[in-house]
Amino acid sequence: MTDTTSSQIDHLFNEDRRFAPSDAFAADAVATKELYAEAEADREAFWAEQARALHWHKPFTEVLDWSTPPFAKWFDDGELNVAYNCLDRHVEAGNGDRVALLWEGEPGDERKVTYAELTDEVKRLANVLGDLGIGHGDRVAIYMPMIPEAIAAMLAVARIGAIHSVVFGGFSADSLRSRIDDAGAKLVITADGGYRKGKVSPLKPAVDMALADRNGSGVQETVEHVLVVQRGKNAVEWTEGRDVWWHDVVPQASGEHEAQPFPAENPLFILYTSGTTGKPKGILHTSGGYLTQAAFTHKVVHDIHPETDVFWCTADIGWVTGHSYVTYGPLANGTTQVLYEGTPDTPHPGRWWELVEKYGVTILYTAPTAIRSFMKLGRAIPKKFDLSSLRLLGSVGEPINPEAWMWYRKIIGGKTTPIVDTWWQTETGAMMISALPGVTETKPGSAQVPLPGIAIDVVDEDGTHVGNGNGGLLVITKPWPSMLRGIWGDPERFVETYWEKFQKQGYYFAGDGARLDDDGDVWFLGRVDDVMNVSGHRLSTTEIESALVANEAVAEAAVVGASDETTGQAVAAFVIIKQSYLAANSPDGLAQTLRLWVGEQIGPIARPRDVYIVEELPKTRSGKIMRRLLRDVAEGREVGDTTTLADTAVMSVISAQVR
Ligand code: WT7
To answer: EC number(s) in its UniProt entry (predicted)?
Structure first.
């Protein structure tokens, strides 16, 4: 268990509020309690049944091959096309006129894209990708704003059996470059820019920077083309022969494209996420198992009635939530969904609620950090809008504190909507732990129970079940369909990071602390490794430390996640500055420079909230930085046990410098 959390735990477990679904909700709910019994009776048969809800060009006969753990194969002899499942089959079933995307740009422009239109666009784009030399197994980087073309890009790559690597548009040119290199991408799909906070935020210039100056870097350029959507109309430079405008090729391309089947284990995407080292991990997901679990969980946890619901997941496609619950889950289920380009507070702080009213959103899926920032702004803002269309709310990305849960239900959900708190990870591909709306009595603050077909436990360091009322480490005890299949190019790190700790038992180690309450419900306590969770986004302390020491003024740096009222955790950096720079600059100036520096190196989300300039860092005799003590300082607590420090006086010096 992490030391930040142990002090916050006790009050949580006195939670005795329970919210049963209304009879009306329960009567219409997609999920039933029989799902648990079915999965319990025969887990593999249960998943096979869910998989058969998809269209298989060649039906599978094998369900799970776990003969060489931790490398799983699901539905291995089956063949399918992921994009066909998300598009063509709905059109063929007569639902081509159903709206897939209710898109709203930040400036207020709108586009409604039907399933027939999206299918047509994806077919054309698939042909263009072929013309650009992209085929089965090639990697394509996608660096785009939240516009319909971004979804089309993912699906077109999937359609031809290539592999996408979506890089969040808020990441820097450097971050983009390292991801392009790691995956060996042949094509980058981007836009000139997209709207954020009232102005155009450029993207193509970052791609140009990422691809420039390879000379002497020792890195072989793999990118042959850059395909560019015109969105922001900002000025962009053009490299003839490499760069291609989307509007010059996609509308002109043939609309004929027959989806070919690919094996169930064909790679679908790589998505980079932070780990405990400086180098992001390329999490690899494949096709059949991933789509099965993304679609199934979306349907039962979000209670999707495709004919009537308007779903809105606010995540960016740059994160796994955007992959599974904007692109793949909702489209596989033929859902109508809202897609919004911009930030929640532009041009006014009620923007999200205005969209809920305008589009009649029935299901909203968002992150606790957003809920807490709305809470801070006050109920008067959402109260100005008619939110009565909402019938179900979801939460994801970090633990939701009971206070925010109650506010969400009362102010946004009109005191009636069920709330599902869904726990999962980039690595799990889809939801793992959540209430089933209409079935489970919900409990503010707890993610509650594993979904049907999912097996988890909370164990101690030896892998022994801790029992109700106790805390420990969250593990997944049986393989699941949407599990990661590896880390791109690094099978050893895959085994080491997730499977070595509980090798004897064969458990997957999630890196989260958790506690079972007296009912056996799961409460998450935060990460137990050097990974922070800022606004529901995963950041690595080591990665930010490396960025800091890459600045010429910095001698040494230590980064911790300090608890923050709105963002869950915030980045706090303790930095030792080189003497020559100390003399020439003010500490405030240095701190500000370093904040911006980290933003440029990694992306604005990684920018430290606090940069403390200190003379020393607390280290053990073996030289390991004691982050626990720095966290005490950053959170304004009395500093804990310092007896293992090499120099016990160092903490009083640091505390004095920080105040
Ligand atoms: C980490 C995964 C899941 C998609 C978004 C984040 C934390 C996620 C919850 C939740 C408590 C949660 C965990 C997890 N987390 N959802 N409902 N309750 N903690 O994906 O970047 O891969 O981060 O987010 O710490 O390990 P990610």
So the answer is: 6.2.1.1
Backbone φ/ψ region at 408: left (φ over 0), alpha (ψ -120 to 50), beta:
alpha
Residues with CB under 6 Å of ligand 1 are 273, 320-321, 396-399, 421-426, 447, 510-512, 524, 527, 533, 536, 538
| Radius of gyration for the chain, computed over Cα atoms and rounded to the nearest angstrom | 24
User: Could you give the number of structural domains in the chain?
Assistant: 2
- What's the confidence (pLDDT) of residue 92? 98
Report if residue 525 sits inside a domain. Answer: no
pLDDT at 344: 95
Q: Which of 423, 427, 449, 487 to mutate to test the pocket of ligand 1 (most atoms within 8 A of CB)?
A: 423
- Among 398, 400, 539, say which to mutate for ligand 1: greatest number of ligand atoms within 8 Å of CB: 398
- Whether residues 483 and 587 fall in one domain: no
What range defines the domain where residue 563 resides? 535-658
**Distance in Å, CA 166 to ligand 1 centroid:** 19
CA of 526 to the centre of ligand 1 (A): 9
Domain assignment present for 526 = no
Q: Residue 464 carries which side chain, given as an amino acid letter?
A: T
What is the CATH classification number for the domain harbouring 480? 3.40.50.12780
Beta 199-202 vs 193-196: how paired, if at all? antiparallel
Alpha carbon separation from 265 to 80, 137, 453, 455, 581 (Å, rounded): 10, 12, 20, 22, 54
Based on the fold, state whether residues 457 and 582 are members of the same structural domain: no
579-594 pLDDT per residue, tens:
899 888 899 999 999 9
Both 542 and 429 in one domain: the answer is no
Residue 144 belongs to a domain: yes
Domain boundary among the residues 473, 498, 523 is at 498
Q: Which residues are annotated as a binding site?
A: 196-199, 321, 397-399, 421-426, 512, 527, 535, 538, 549, 554
Which residue numbers in the chain have pLDDT < 70?
1-14, 213, 215-216, 659
Task: Identify whether 503 is part of a domain.
Answer: no
**Do both 173 and 274 map to the same domain?**
yes
| 472 beta partners | 514
CA 411 to chain CA centroid, Å, is 26
Q: Is 381 helix (H, G, I), strand (E, B) or coil?
A: helix
**Ligand 1, atom 21: nearest CA belongs to which residue?**
538
**Joined tokens for residue 244:** 């291609």
The CA distances from residue 167 to 103, 185, 547, in Å, are 21, 12, 19
**One domain for residues 352 and 207:** yes
Question: How far, in Å, from the CA of 441 to the mean position of ligand 1?
Answer: 22
**Does the global pTM surpass 0.90?**
yes
Q: What is the CATH number of the domain that holds 581?
A: 3.30.300.30
Same domain, 402 and 315: yes
Residues 6 or more apart whose Cβ sits within 8 Å of residue 430? 290, 293, 294, 296, 297, 324, 329, 424, 482
Domain stops at, among 448, 474, 498: 498
Contact 381, 354 (CB under 8 A): no
Helix ranges, 536-586 (H): 541-549, 579-584
Cβ proximity of 86 and 126 under 8 Å: no
Closest by Cα among 440, 445, 471, 449 to 458: 471
